[in-house]
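Interim report, section 4.2 (structural modelling).
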Amino acid sequence: MAIRNIREIGDSILTKTCRPVENMTPRIQQLIQDMLDTMYENYGVGLAASQVGVLKRIVVIDIGEGPVVMVNPQIVETSGEQTGDEGCLSVPGKTGTVTRPMYAKVKAFDENMKPVEIEGEGLMARAICHECDHLDGVLYVERMEGELRDVEYEEEEQS
Ligand code: ZN
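Predicted structure of the assembly:
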């Protein structure tokens, strides 16, 4: 298990376009495992490779239904609309309102470069769109309606 350092807003790597994975290698499979470990360690629901400083088109998502790996994902269908709060491990402690499709369908490859189709509604559709945006160097703050707000934690802070 290896936790990688998460790049934060202001780091120029987050604005860069990621390159497709041509061939799966043990090194890339290790990267995918590290991305999952890093996402779970930070209680995220998704992570893109650029967020750990690697400009490859790889995304991991887990909305609480198990890990989903997407290599070279392409959104092939969307429908509907949802408006809600979104956060990002690269924008820690903040949230903002973003409108996304209610449904999204993706064609991608898994960690063995087997073609997969993934679809989701609600939070899954939001996560798919958010993470695929990262691969094109787009952060949610660029799609946000209104201002970035501080996340309100339920627990009182101990001083
Ligand atoms: Zn993000």
